[in-house]
Amino acid sequence: MKKFIEIMQYSFWGMLTTIINFTCVELLCSNGMESLNANIIAWLLSNYVMYAGIKNRVFHYKTHGIKQYIVQLDYFYISRIVTLAFEEILIWKFVDIEGYPLLQIKIISAVLMGILNLVFSKIFIFSDENGKMKNITE
Question: Structural domain boundaries of the chain?
């Protein structure tokens, strides 16, 4: 039951992140910002909200010192960039080359990226069991 609750909480933060991302892009673009710049700002902001939410509300992880916080945030963003690159490859392969509908591939990739991001978060970012974060202090 605990795993189910964790997955549901993680999914909630994922949906909230998506809403923040879309809203931020729309607000910035409607106020004259170029779309690619708006998308980068929205991606950074929404992923930070995701980081803070899952760190505190899903994994209940306590950071010990500023150095650990920065390293953990770096790991988080690196994992997100990796899954973003993977998603881009899926879209390129299945939409641009194979001709599948974008929305269909976006939905499938969103599920796959969500699973990968959960695994990265649970194993590499918010875990003391692997020793990576436990040994980083000020």
Answer: 1-60, 62-138
